[in-house]
Specification:
With about 110 residues, the protein is mainly alpha-helical. The chain has a domain of about 50 residues. The chain is about 75% helix and about 0% strand. It is built from four helices and no strands. Helix 3 runs antiparallel to helix 4.
Length: about 110
């Protein structure tokens, strides 16, 4: 009876030790720690934005102002019961220009 309990305890402790899996070698742990320390000390790469063409941005902004003024007068005509044919096209063009400007100016 004592032998079976002793044998059972021995098997139980052995199975617990094997369940943990093999431990990595000491050198591997040191290498992993050195790698993580290195990654913490290196600053992230600085991504420089490509330089934008200021003249192009300015001309697109000017075009956006002209479109918005023409849309304003077109909306006045809608209040009088007339829908200008090109109002929807101008609104779409204005949307495209504003998206393009936003993507060029926003980081």
């Amino acid at each position: 009876m004592r032998i079976s309990i002793l044998l059972f305890a021995l098997l139980l402790s052995a199975s617990a030790a094997f369940a943990q899996g093999p431990l990595p070698p000491n050198g591997q742990r040191q290498a992993d720690k050195a790698q993580s320390d290195f990654e913490k000390t290196v600053p992230p790469p600085f991504h420089q934005r490509p330089s934008m063409d200021f003249a192009k941005v300015k001309s697109e902004a000017d075009e956006l102002v002209i479109l918005s003024q023409s849309i304003h007068s077109g909306v006045d005509n809608v209040g009088k019961g007339m829908l200008p044919r090109d109002l929807i096209d101008k609104l779409k063009q204005m949307e495209k220009l504003s998206k393009r400007l936003r993507s060029e100016l926003a980081p």
